[in-house]
Amino acid sequence: MTEQCCTLQVGQTVPDFKIETYEPTRGDFGEITLEGLRKQGKWTVLFFYPADFTFV
């Protein structure tokens, strides 16, 4: 996936992505993909907090 800024609009489909996550139940980091969440039938909320490197 190439990085592009501000190309999605309301109602458009989000492209697949992979991100690093923190799993508090395990106390460790992991990875998650949008495709994996879709296959599991999980609802997904995308929340962006720009210019801050702390956990939300």
Described by the principal axes of the CA atoms, the overall outline is: flat
Strand order of the largest sheet: 1-2
Task: Please compute the radius of gyration using only Cα atoms.
Answer: 13 Å
Taking the alpha carbons of the first and last residues, their distance comes to 25 Å
Instruction: Give the class from helix and strand content and strand pairing.
Output: alpha+beta
Low-confidence stretches: none
Mean pLDDT over the residues? 80
Can you summarize the main beta sheet? 2 strands, antiparallel
Percent in strands: 15-25%
How many β-strands, per DSSP? 2
Count up the helices.
1
Explain briefly what this protein structure is.
With 56 residues, the chain is of the alpha+beta class.
Question: What is the strand and helix layout of this fold?
Answer:
Layout: E1 18-23, E2 28-33, H1 34-39
Antiparallel strand pairs: 1-2
Can you tell me about this structure?
- This protein is α+β, with helices and mostly antiparallel strands.
- It has a domain at 17-47.
- The protein has one helix and two strands; from the N terminus they run ββα.
- Strand 1 and strand 2 (28-33) form a beta hairpin.
Key traits:
single chain, 56 residues, alpha+beta, 11% helix, flat
